[in-house]
Design goal:
Radius of gyration: 25 Å
InterPro entries: PGBD
Helix content: 40-55%
Distance between the termini: 81 Å
Structural class: alpha+beta
Protein name: PiggyBac transposable element-derived protein domain-containing protein
Strand order of the largest sheet: 1-2-3
Number of domains: 2
Number of helices: 4
Number of strands: 5
Pfam families: DDE_Tnp_1_7
Strand content: 15-25%
Largest sheet: 3 strands, antiparallel
Oligomer: single chain
């Protein structure tokens, strides 16, 4: 483990490089390296578990990493793929994906509070299909097509 602490415009920054299975870099304004605890890792050289030192910033990240990583993973499962040169179209569809995933997570939380059996809770795919069908049904009917010109037989 290696770390440096500096102050930039009145804000203290701690940069940490932790040598786990791979090198992991962290920059934090909230957590530093202290206190250091130990964690077990598999050593392929020794073919056994060994204890290595883990800085506080790594521990804090591992405790609180679930939210963003989970949402990113769920969005990637059924992403709306749109090919567009306009960047704002991609942002709009990403926000739609994000909204549907957040709504599904709220739905699951609500079902768990009601203590519904897990088999009665919709999957993310069926939830997305259900949302799409409700949105399609709620749209006003399209006007009839008026054909111009000579009628065809």
């Amino acid at each position: 483990m290696d770390h440096r602490v500096t102050e930039v415009e009145g804000v203290e920054l701690c940069v940490t490089r932790w040598y786990d299975n791979n090198v992991v870099n962290y920059l934090s304004t909230l957590h530093g390296c202290q206190p250091i605890d130990s964690v077990q890792r598999w050593s392929s050289k020794e073919k056994t578990h060994v204890l290595i030192a883990r800085p506080n910033v790594i521990k804090a990240y591992n405790e609180h990493m679930g939210g963003v990583d989970l949402v990113d993973m769920l969005i990637s499962l059924y992403r709306i793929n749109v090919r567009s040169k306009k960047y704002y179209i991609k942002i709009i569809f990403h926000l739609i994906d994000l909204s549907v995933v957040n709504a599904w997570l709220l739905y699951r939380r609500h079902c768990s509070q009601l203590k519904l059996p897990q088999k009665n809770v919709m999957s993310l795919l069926s939830f997305r299909i259900n949302v799409a069908s409700v949105l399609l049904k709620s749209s006003p009917p399209s006007p009839p097509i008026i054909r111009r010109g000579r009628p065809s037989l």
